[in-house]
Amino acid sequence: MKKIIAAFDGLKYSKSTRDYAIYLSKQTDTHLVGVFLDDPTYSSYKIYELITKEGISDEKIKKYKSEDNALRKKSSDDFENECKKAGIAFSLHHDHNIAKVDIKHESIYTDLMVIDSKETLTHYNEKLPTRFIRDLLSDAQCPVLLVPQKYKPIEKIILLYDGEPSSVQAIKMFSYLLPQLKQIETEVICVNAPTGTLHLPDNKLMKELMKRHFPKAMFTVIKGWAEEEITKYLKKKTENTLVVLGAYRRGNISRLFRQSMADVLMKEVKFPLFIAHKS
């Protein structure tokens, strides 16, 4: 891997995104780019705050814009200072167009994106998954690491597998991009239908692949319904776990990891989620 981008709303700066991105950059000796989405249509203040008896106040507009600029600068300065402390190669991008457009464009030219799972790029808090994140995951041109709001060192990797190409693709992309994490305890989780067996789909081929990519990985096969069983299983794990999954495409229906799988995990567990899909 050669380039990671960490995407930020400078008005609601995510230190967790910063910390996960710096950690991965150090582990992989990869250039880190802090992308600050300075969308001109988005501000920390609301229109009604500008209204006085005389109408819209130019003085208030100037004051609030100045405060927003200062806050955005404070955020980018913090990112820059922490990167210098960590001794990593880094650079900054300040994107000044519509945030959704800019971040998708940035995703074409990077190997991995790190972003807070609660990112909204609006004034408002939203239920997970937010509209911004759903749109991003549907159209991102690179794997995305969604991170929780509190940084935890990664001590275990869980690879979700359902026999579909998209889940295998996600596992391979994780292996290609983050080989330095292969020394961490790794487990493959598969959920078969209640009437199915306890065998992995394509058992021989999958184990042959894993022997080359994650030779020390353990395998766990559960019977039941994926969303219920995976959530239940993950809730027993520590928050130092990273989960790898695929198939976040609109209209893509997988037997196990439907589009809703990532949605469920964002709501139910506070783990970093590495999400990749076939183009």
What does this structure look like?
The chain has about 280 residues and is an alpha/beta fold. It folds into 2 domains: about 5-145, Rossmann fold, CATH 3.40.50; about 155-275, Rossmann fold (3-Layer(aba) Sandwich). Helix content is about 35%, strand content about 20%. The protein is built from 8 helices and 12 strands. The strands form 2 sheets. Strands 5-2-1-6-7-12-11-8-9-10 form a 10-stranded mixed β-sheet, sandwiched between helices. A two-stranded antiparallel ribbon has the order 3-4. The longest helix is centred in the N-terminal third of the chain and has 29 residues, at about 60-85. The radius of gyration is 20 Å and the shape is elongated.
Largest sheet: 10 strands, mixed
Low-confidence stretches: 249-259
Radius of gyration based on Cα positions: 20 Å
Overall form? elongated
Question: SSE layout and pairings?
Answer:
Layout: E1 3-8, H1 15-28, E2 31-37, E3 51-52, E4 55-56, H2 58-86, E5 90-95, H3 99-107, E6 112-116, H4 131-139, E7 144-147, E8 156-160, H5 165-177, E9 185-192, H6 203-213, E10 218-223, H7 226-234, E11 241-246, H8 260-268, E12 273-276
Parallel strand pairs: 1-2, 1-6, 2-5, 6-7, 8-9, 8-11, 9-10, 11-12
Antiparallel strand pairs: 3-4, 7-12
Helix pairs in contact: 1-2
